[in-house]
Amino acid sequence: MGKFYSILQALFMLAVFSLSLSQLNSQNVVNNGNGIVINQGAWLVIGGNYINQTGGQDGFVDIDGKMVVNRDFINNSANEVFINIETAPDGEVILNGSAIQNISGTTSTRFENLNIQNSRKVLQTDFCQVAGRLYVQAILDLNSNTFVIDNSSPQGITYSSGFILSETTPDQGLGIILWNIENSSGNFEIPFGTGNSANNDLDLNLSITTSGSDEGFMSFSTFPTSTTNYPLPSGISSLDPFDPAITVDRFWLVEPTFISKPSAYITFMYDFPSAHGINRNSLKAIRHNTDGNSWNDWGPAGDANAAALTVATPIITPQNFYAWWTLSGEEQAEYVYVPNAFSPNGDGVNDEFKPFINGYEPDEYVFYIFDRWGKQIFESNNLENGWDGTHNDSECKQDVYVWYVIFSDMNNKIQTLNGIVALIK
Predict the structure, then answer these.
(1) What distance in Å separates the CA atoms of residue 90 and residue 384, rounded to the nearest whole number?
(2) pLDDT of residue 333
(3) What does the alpha-carbon distance between residue 331 and residue 359 come to, in Å, rounded to a whole number?
(4) What is the DSSP string of 354-399?
(5) Nearest-CA neighbor of 113 among 140, 143, 86, 138?
(6) Which CATH number does 335-423 carry?
(7) Across the beta sheet with 341-342, what order do the strands follow?
(8) What DSSP string runs through 56-121?
(9) In this structure, what DSSP letter does residue 33 have?
(10) Residue of 40, 103, 22, 37 whose CA lies nearest to 69
(11) Alpha-carbon distances, residue 98 vs 47, 121, 409, 415 (angstroms)
């Protein structure tokens, strides 16, 4: 161990030294059947790939410090890489690359704590898991795979920025977050996103009020559909008696797998385009009863917040807790559409950002843009006048901005909508 520890010290010093010289970007560490020990307070910085292999034995890492990997994390051994994981895991892997990083290999990896930062991380291997916390500060693309949170605490996913991408359809294979909640209660947040904005614009919150039985788990996923709500979830043949025209273009999987199911509330967030033509104040949750093959034996139920693009269910009792959910409502009298991104680059496509109100011209109308610090940078009272991405004749930087539109509806009542838009260059 003393000889190996000296080698590790040399590797660590080389990594730190090379990183300071910006010369480590293509350097890989290949663990060809050896053991790596990273003590508490120590950092192992890898500018390239980490590749866990099998030589005389399976390569492994005993981590109590931090391991930074700037390219792919690949496990080609027969084990799950990390050993001696404590009850309260203290080691942390930081995937910090500026280019797309893959979590891949022939065998899944079990991380102690995983912190994703900067670029998109793409899951290439099924049933990778984290024993401690998944820190989300970037995009985690599930890529039709399942990622396991083996931590019953509501802090098992800790969100700062970015989102979890789970937009593949049943035919492609669902991307699933499987959370071993066991008999815990509290608020469990899954920061899903569409990929059409920079944030978690499909944020899903499960609030468990009465816990389920031991060793139970929840499966979470979501996927977009066409305006006819196709494709339907696997095993479901119809949306009847609900009308696809007034049902959002999306389904959610919120599936309890317990001997005794919990009681819970669910708050769904949807993206604006998926609710085109629907009165968002009328949206309520519906769910499919697998046993009775019915969408309407519970609900529609819930409280809609049109401005926040959310619907919160009433309490869901164990006997009413099934897997598949969506939102249905009433037809919208007027059609209001606000894009969630634009690119003012002068190419004549999507250069201007503004709301679209079809079917009538409102008597009152004002449109505002604010930056992320709340400073107003644009105002218009003309429905035809959109924001070109400038302020005081200077181009605004690529960022996320807040918009408000206040207008009179067909009944001459004042309506207020707000949201965010991504300025992309």
Answers:
(1) 56
(2) 58
(3) 14
(4) --EEESS--SSEEEEEE-TTS-EEEEES-TT--B-SEETTEEPPSE
(5) 86
(6) 2.60.40.1220
(7) 341-342, 414-423, 399-408, 365-370, 376-380
(8) SSB-EEEESSEEEESS-EEE-SSS-SB-S--SS---EEEE--SS-EEEEESS--EESSEEEESS-E
(9) S
(10) 103
(11) 11, 10, 46, 42
Cα–Cα dist 64/85, whole Å: 9
The CA radius of gyration of the chain, in Å to the nearest whole number, is: 24
Query: Which position has the token pair 């892997």?
Result: 93
At 235 the pLDDT is: 94
Instruction: Give 263's strand partners.
Output: 210
Name every residue whose Cβ is closer than 8 Å to that of residue 65 and which is 6 or more positions away in sequence. 38, 39, 40, 41, 42, 43, 44, 91, 92
Distance CA 344, CA 392 (A): 15
Query: CA–CA separation, 294 vs 289, rounded Å?
Result: 5
Tokens 């294979």 correspond to what residue?
A: 173
User: What pLDDT was estimated at residue 408?
Assistant: 87
Q: Cα(321)–Cα(208) distance, rounded to whole angstroms?
A: 12
The burial of 247, by beta-carbon neighbours within 10 Å (0-12 exposed, 13-18 middle, 19 or more buried), is given as buried
Q: Mean pLDDT of residues grouped by 10 in the chain (425 residues)? A: 41 35 55 92 93 93 96 97 96 97 98 97 98 98 98 97 96 97 97 92 97 95 94 95 95 97 97 86 96 94 93 97 96 76 88 86 93 94 94 94 90 84 93
List, in sequence order, every residue forming a beta bridge with 114; answer none if it has no partner.
93, 134
Q: Determine the Cα angle at 169 with ends 332 and 157, to 5°.
A: 90
**This model's pTM is above 0.90:** no
Instruction: Give the integer Cα–Cα distance in Å for 28 and 47.
Output: 7
Q: Is the preceding omega at residue 191 within 30 degrees of 0, hence cis?
A: no
Using DSSP bridges, classify how beta strands 341-342 and 324-331 pair: parallel, antiparallel or unpaired.
Answer: unpaired
Do the Cβ atoms of 341 and 399 come closer than 8 Å? no
Neighbour-count burial of 370, counting CB atoms closer than 10 A to its CB (0-12 exposed, 13-18 middle, 19+ buried) = middle
> Are the C-beta atoms of residues 157 and 149 closer than 8 Å to each other?
yes
